[in-house]
Amino acid sequence: MQTKATEFDQISKNIFYPIYPVIAQQILAERKGISEGTCLDVGSGPGYVGLSIARQSKMQVCLYDMDQNALEIAKKNINEALLEDRVFVKYGNVEEIPYPNESFDLVTSRGSLFFWQDKVKAINEIFRVLKMGGTAYLGGGFGNQKLKDMVDQKMLAIDDQWLVKAAMRKGCADDYENLLKKTIVKQFTVKEDDSGLWIVFHKTSEPTKEQH
Ligand SMILES: C[S@@+](CC[C@H](N)C(=O)[O-])C[C@H]1O[C@@H](n2cnc3c(N)ncnc32)[C@H](O)[C@@H]1O
């Protein structure tokens, strides 16, 4: 049976594939040359963001998703990439991450935030599992304008509603600013440029008691 996860994997493999290494590079640039540590890729789907991060760094990467079918595909992709020693899958919802406080140096998430039911709870969870000095890079995008144009053109050929759906999902910088103000994250950046729309924050201090 063709599941949603299989369909997304096919699109990622055949159309999106050049965007992932570019996005991984942009994410790792936020870590300013630190190429070791642990990374949680939330809403990983078939895992191409996390796998690209693993290829471009020495990080241990957890591909985390609440769709078991997506994780089965992710496992195959990990094996094909020969990255079983550094990349693994874990099932769960972003709103309740099954890891202790301060477990990850980097939390990434591309193309998933739009689907989260309780985004405030989810972002607070991400902040909780980030190590001190850790970075979160959450949102959506296609790497750069040229890649976005290529994806739009190919997606429009198979779905004439692609641009409408993509615009509806994307939201805007103001929505993200307002969302973040409701969370325990006090310092963050919302960047909207050719790379997409992303929330970036670094964990530099614990939230105060009132913020818990
Ligand atoms: C459009 S796919 C993006 C996959 C991948 N990040 C990429 O960019 O290729 C969105 C993924 O987010 C996952 N997802 C949605 N809501 C989630 C949640 N609350 N917790 C964990 N994963 C979630 C879905 O199961 C799906 O695999």
TrEMBL record:
InterPro entries: Methyltransf_11 (IPR013216), SAM-dependent_MTases_sf (IPR029063). Gene3D superfamilies: Vaccinia Virus protein VP39 (3.40.50.150). It comes from the Bacteria. Residues 40-137 form the Methyltransferase type domain. SUPFAM superfamilies: S-adenosyl-L-methionine-dependent methyltransferases. One of its GO terms (molecular function) is S-adenosylmethionine-dependent methyltransferase activity. This is Methyltransferase type 11 domain-containing protein. It comes from Acetobacterium bakii.
